Amino acid sequence: MKKTTLCDTTAIAALTLALVSNVYAADPIKVGVVTPLSGSYAPIGKQVRWGAELAVKEINAAGGVNGRPFELLFEDEEANPPVAVRKSEKLLQQDKVDFLTGTVNSGSTLAVGQLAERNDRILVTTVSYAPSITGAQCNANVFRVNANAFMQSNALTNWLTKNVPGKRYFFIGPDYEMGRSTISAFQKDVARLGGSDTGSTFPPLGAKDFSSYIGQIRAARPDVIMTATAGNDTVRLLTTLKEYGILNDKLTLAGAAGAVTQENIAAMAGAGDGFVSSAGYSTDIDTPDNKKFVAAFKKEFQADPDLFGADTYGLFFLFKQAIEKAGGTTDTAKLRAAMEDASWNTPQGKKTMRKGDHQAIVDMLVVKVKGNDFATVGKVPGEEAVGPDNCDNF
Predict the structure, then answer these.
(1) Distance CA 164, CA 187 (A)
(2) 139-156: b (≥16 Cβ within 10 Å) or e
């Protein structure tokens, strides 16, 4: 029988350590994606899903993060905060995810953010607009990589008041946190820039019939209608305006970046033509990185990306960078520190995460619908659009 030597023992120990390390290195980095896959906001959720899937496919194909692959776990939040909390709790407690993302409804993001804080996990929204998420209700475990309502309004209203004749504005938004906060931002900026507020209305989220609001809109005689609806709600709103003859050459349609997107534009049958919004992304960004992203997205999904797909795609490269900076760990405190003040490359260009409130600084594009596409007609640097840091909670 061969006698075991010290060299043999050392070799066995080294092999065991290598095997353990390889097993650990192969452990997936789990990301829970709680996003609307049904209901009015399902078109947004589809872009969120696609953006996440493309980024993960590319990162994993290149070796993952320090040898660890990303794993996506999807849950349908139905754009409903209680549902979002229940699904997120399942992902955190049962599936043991390392990150959460995907929430669209701002109420969902605020509610899930509190859950993330209690469970010591990080939530990043790539969609929600409400300024309170990184403002009055900011949370040390919540980050936002997309432009908020203030940033959109700041860029859009400046462009409208300089480039559109007529000063009479009417506002329409869904009756919940995002809709009211976005419309409030629009109203304040329009008033500051000399426009006239002729009225506003707040239909319920998922409203099936907008005809009851036509009389109020006619009576207001607006030059500009600004909306914060999204998904299928925008389709129903704009097609109703077209059906009732509200749309004409003298009226300008404008609003939130999520109102008219690549996912709902075709369903409007031309009713969205001329719609102006301010967004952190457009497919016509003329850079090699964006052209590569658009081509890959089209090849994978036979559709164009919109801002939600692009912002979600870019997020995973922030995750990758933060994990690498933290030494390969998914420890929340170390990841939080690695994400604060981070700069990373996205299809839009470089983004920077502001440490004080966890709001990303994003260049804002003013885009106009032409047919079934968007054309950039203006740009505002992110530093000018972002506004003050109003977070005092951490």
Answers:
(1) 16
(2) bbbbbbbbbbbbbbbbbb
Average pLDDT of 19-43? 80
| pTM: predicted TM-score of the whole model, two decimal places | 0.84
69-72-74 Cα angle (round to 5) = 175
User: Rounded distance, CA 285 to CA 170, Å?
Assistant: 31
CA dihedral (87, 90, 93, 99) positive or negative:
negative
Cα 290 to Cα 10, 131, 320, 375: the distances in Å are: 51, 27, 19, 15
All domains of the chain, ordered by start, with CATH?
24-147+286-362 (3.40.50.2300), 150-279 (3.40.50.2300)
Tens digits of residue pLDDT in 344-360: 999 999 999 999 999 99
Element (H, E) at 147: none
Distance, in Å, from the CA atom of 217 to the CA atom of 243, rounded to the nearest integer, reads 14
How far apart CA 222 and CA 191 sit, in angstroms, is 14
Partnered with residue 101 across adjacent β-strands are 33, 124
Look-up of token digits 């609307």: 36
* Residue range 314-326, pLDDT digits in tens: 999 999 999 999 9
Helix 149-163 vs helix 177-192: crossing angle, to nearest 10: 40
What are the pLDDT digits (tens) for 208-265? 999 999 999 999 999 999 999 999 999 999 999 999 999 988 999 999 988 998 889 9
In eight-state DSSP terms, residue 174 is: -
| DSSP annotation string for 281-342 | --TT--SHHHHHHHHHHHHHHSS---HHHHHHHHHHHHHHHHHHHTTT---HHHHHHHHTT-
